[in-house]
Each structure stands twice: as C-alpha cells, then as structure tokens.
Amino acid sequence: MASNSKKVLFGLYNDEEDLKSAIKVANEGHLDIMDVYTPFPVHGLDPVLGLKESRLHYLGFIYGATGATFGFLTMSWIFTRDWPIMFGGKPYWSVPAFIPITFEMTVLFAAWGMTITFYTICGMWPGVKAKTLDDRITDDKFCVAFDVTDASEGDVDQLRGFFSRTNAAEVNVKTI
Amino acid sequence: MNLNTQFVFESKTKRLLYGGMALGVLCLLYIYMNDDAYHTRFWSTWLHHAVFFSGISFTAMFFLSGQITAFAGWNTVIRRVWESMSQFMWVGIILMGLVVAGVWGHLHHLYHWNAEGVTDPNSPHFDKIIAGKAGFLNPVWFTVGTVGFLAVWYFWAMKLRQASVDQDTMETEDFKYYKKQRKWAASFLPLGGFLSTVFLWQSVMSIDTHWYSTMFAWYSMVSTWLGAISLTVILIIYLKSLGYMEYVTFDHLHDIGKFLFGISVFWTYLWFDQFMLIWYANNGEETIYFFERMNHYPVLFWGNLVLNFVTPFFILMRNDTKRKFGTMFFVALIVFFGHWWDFFYMIKPGARTAAHEAMELAEGKHHGSSHETAHAPAAPAAAHHAEEHTAAPATADTAAHAGEAAHAEAGHEAHTPDAAAHEGASHGEGHEAAAGHHGEEADESKSFKFGYTIPGLDDLGVLIGFLSLFLFFFFNQLSKSSLVPLKDPFLDESLHHETGAMIEGEEGGAHH
C-alpha cells in the first residue's frame, strides 16, 4: 500500500471565514488544492472550491422510486394473487390501505440505498482505518490540504508562503 | 444598499384593487340574485372567503410567532410581510361577524344545528345527535369561537407589530423591544394552536353537523397556513419586481420554498390520514362525508389532490426549482388557488346539504328523510329512519342519472309509499306534496351545479374581490413602516443568509 500513500502539506485555520478567504487566495494563485476538511458543513464552500453539483440526489430519487414500486406491487400481488384476505368487506385491491406501506418502503429503500452509496463513495466500510490529518479538524479547526508527494522544494515553499499570508494557525506535513 | 426604504402604496395600485373589490361585489350580488330561497350560495361563498382570509392572516401571525420563538434569524428581512398580513384579522372579525349575525338572526341555513327545534325533545324536528352537541354547537359558542377568538388573536398580532415598529425608533442598543416581541410571540403559540382548532370546528366542520373528525382542525389549519406561505412568495416576488427588497435573495426564497414544499407534504399527510382512517373504519356516519364528496363532487375531490399535492410535490422536489423566481411564483399561485379550492371543497357540499335539510324542515317534512341524518343510528325511531335511508339514495341516484321522465317518476313512486308509511298522523296532510318534492330535491342536491360541484366564474370573481380587499389592507399596513425591522438583533444574520445550496449556472455559484 506504500505506493498509494500521499505526502500532504496542510494548514489549519481557526475560523471558517479565514478558510473561505484563504481558498479565494489559493484560487487566484492557481494553487491545486487537494481537499478541504471542516468540522461542520460550511455554507458557500462548494462554490468557492468550484465543486460540481453532487449527483447523489439522482440516486436518492431512483432508490425511493424503486422502493415505492416494490412496496406497491408486492402488496398488490400478496392481496390479489398470493393470499387474498377480505378485510371488513373491502375489495382485495384496496389502494388506500397500501399507501402507508408504499410510503415506508420508499423511505426504507432511499435511506438504506443512500447510506450504502455514501459509504461506498467515501471509502468507508467496517474495519477501515480513518486517514485523519489532524484530530482537531473534527472539532474546531478548518483545514486546507495540498498533495506534495511529487512537489519540488520551490513548490512547497510557495505553499508555505501562501499559508503564512492567509493567517493559518498551524502548518504541518503528514503522510497518509 | 439602503435598508430604510418604505413601501409606497401608489394610487395606481389602489385603483386596481378598488376595481378588484368592485368586481367581487358585483359577483357576490350576481350570486345573491341567482340563488335558492335561502341564499345558500351567497352565504357559503361569504363564509368560505371569510374563513380563508382570516385563516391566512392568523397563520401568518402563527408562523411568525413560531419563527421568533425558535430564534430563527433568516426571515428577519421578510418579517414585515407577515406582520402586515396578520393585521388583516380585524377585517376578518367583520367578515366573520356577518356570519355570526346570520346565526343569531337565522338569516342563513349554513349550520343545521341552528335550525328550529332540532334540540327540543318535544319538537318533531328533534335530532338526538345534534342535541348531544348543543353544549358546543350553539350561537353563543359560535360567537366566542369565531369573532371572539379572532379578536384575541388580533390583540396579540397588534401588540407584536407594535413592539416591532417601536423597535425601529430605538436610539440605544437594547434588547427591550426584542424581549417584548418574544413574550407576545411565545404566548401566542398555545393560544393560536389550541383556539384555532375550535375556530375551525365551529366555522367549517359544524356545517356537516352530524359528522366530526379529530384530524379536521389540523388539516384545515394547515390549509390556511399554505395559503399564507404561498401568498408570501407571491407578494415577495411582486415587491421585488417593483424594485423593493433587493436584499431578499435566492437563499431566502429557497427557505420559504422548503416550507411550501414541506407543509404541502404535511397537508397531504393530514388529508390522507383523515381519509384513510374513515375509509378503513367504514362507519356510516363518518364515511357519508367522503362518500358524498367522492361520488357527487369528484372534480373537487380529485382536483384538490392534484393542485395541493401533485403540483408542489413534483415541481418543488428539486433543489433548484425553489430558487427560481418564475417557478416559485407559478407554484405559489397554484398552491394558493389550491387551498382556496380546498376550503370550497370543505364548505360547499355540506352547505348544500344543510340548506336542503332546512328546506325540508320548513316544509314540515319529517327530519329523518334527509340522507345525512338518516345515517344516524341513535336518532329516535331509528328503525323507520333506516328503512327510509335505503329508499332515499336509490331515489336520488335514479333521478340524478336518468334524463328520462319515466325514470324520475319511478323514483317518486318508489319513494312515496315508503315515506307515506312512516309519516305520522300529524304530517299526514301535507305529505303527498312534500314527498314528491323530496325526489326533486335529492336530484337537485346531487347533480352538477356551478358554484357547488366546481367553482364557477362568479366564484373566481369573488375570490379576486376578497383578495383585493386583503391586499389593500396588506399594502396599507406595509406602507406604514420600514420594509425591514431596522434594529432587529437578527437583521445582520438575515442579510447574510445562505442555504449552502449550490446550483450550477446560478449567479451565486460562478465564483471562479
């Protein structure tokens, strides 16, 4: 796995506004940011980073629609073909009675589908070791990270200069 | 960006609104003159709009109070819109006041519990079920539950508005007025939450006097709430188009859009719950409500779901549609019209039945012959009611669905001997005519009719009239103070509000 490990130069900021203005400076200098880590979702970060709109919600819709179809068709099959039971004189195919189950199946499929998809995208599964640059980025620090595995001495100096200009509280190097 | 701007209520807009009101008055007159003997259409139309627009101003106040209590900061820039909407409640008192006067003076027959003798055990019109509810369904409670509660709410709305306007003139940095607002807002929540249920039971649910549903107040209050939210969207977009409120951004619109979407789904949830529980339990006295509406008012029934669930759900599901002014305006128009339609659906079929019941009473007909009451198993002489019940719908159906005279006659004959057998000696004389009349009435009360089965053009005219009235008072209030609460502690947060949504191709997203 050694070939996959990266040498990362990262700066920690104390405030999300510092982080956002630092990213703007990095964009102006055409610096190639590897990733940004924050303890909570920071509003307005995605446009500054130039990230594309996530396509995750299309999958969410597909999972939900699958669940709705599955729930409704299963109920229909059970109560008209497989095991028809008369409830209080209602017709076998009683659509209003199927709606709560259809709804629940929609939610169940969407929730499980999205959870599994999200974990897969993030490379998370049981037993995986977390590649955390610094424990404090899950608490109160905001981090900008650069991949410097193949960077020259001059490039690294330029990045360090960038961090000091944008008031980073700390600058560290770590191989993950 | 100058925050201290005030809305100018131009005379051009005023003239337009006067025109709208005049149209409304003309349409009301037209409805009044082409009406049945009890002016059922006129009164039910009046009640419909009085409840709908009072409800909108009430829910604007309720929503605002909830936001203030929850320390919500995003909405501060649009708070004055809700404050101004809530001030309409005093006009609502007058509008509902006419309905109350009608109850006391027996000017209308919207409420069957108000009919002569229904609570008197010695009267031939005695109705045991209504008598059991008479402690609540009576003119005194009706007055308290409608205009009384509106007056209480209006007092709170006035106080909250006063504290907010006074805050603008505050000279030193102080939380005095803010704390005052919080007190009025927080105390309004239980007051509005509990009393609104009674308001809606009295004014709308009691039209179907024998029927009740524990979901009803929730469902109908949420309906007025959506009216308020959609009207907020429409008004904000209108004000922006005039050049006001340039600080209201996509992000504010997005959050109102989330409410429009979420509360629409909540409305559907309540609507469906009410429907499904009644459908599942299958009790005659409960299902009659939906049986009537599904079979004789199918356009109202299904249209309600299409307008208020399908449209907002599928259009507003995407993130970006909530951030487009055009799309939001379109959806808000549909949802506003949809909840007006929803109240039409709640009120009209019941009012039509109540009027027919009242006419039967006036003609000396036995009370039980109306189809609604016939379902009440506990009514006196239940046995003959039940028999009559089986006969009455058959008559109605035959008469309603067959154009041929022969069928209609057959219907009469089927009904007449049946009813004759049950009529007591005291009613014997006028009976032949009355029974004959009943067959025609059943026909009349179920068949297609503009203003009942679907809203007619004159109903739309009345809607425009009442909406103009509402907007007139709204703009008038709005022009009385600055468009934003200038000294509100949350103003800064609201001006910098971001939802964090990132939409490709939107101005906000093109940073690089």
Model description:
- The complex is a heterodimer of chains A (176) and B (512).
- Chain A has 176 residues and is of the alpha+beta class.
- Chain A has two domains: 2-52 and 129-175, Alpha-Beta Plaits, CATH 3.30.70; 56-121, no CATH class.
- Chain A is 48% helix and 12% strand.
- Chain B folds into two domains: 11-362 and 457-500, no CATH class; 366-455, no CATH class.
- Helix content of chain B is 69%, strand content 0%.
- In chain B, α6 runs antiparallel to α7 and α8 runs antiparallel to α9 (250-281).
- Chain B starts with 10 loop residues before the first helix and ends in a 17-residue tail after the last helix.
- Chains A and B meet through α2 and α4 of A and α9 of B.
- Cα distance spanning the termini of chain B: 25 Å
- Structural class based on helices, strands and sheet pairing of chain A: alpha+beta
The greatest interface between two protein chains, and residues involved on each side, is: A-B, 23 and 19 residues
Main sheet characteristics of chain A: 4 strands, antiparallel
Number of domains of chain B: 2
CATH architecture of the largest domain in chain A: 2-Layer Sandwich
Mean pLDDT of chain B: 84
Radius of gyration of chain A: 25 Å
- Count every beta strand of chain A, where a strand is a DSSP E run of 2 or more residues: 4
- Sketch the topology of chain B as an H/E string, one letter per element: HHHHHHHHHHHHHHHHHH
* Structural class assignment of chain B: mainly alpha
What is the residue-averaged pLDDT of chain A? 89
Biggest sheet statistics of chain B: none
Number of domains of chain A: 2
Number of helical regions of chain A: 5
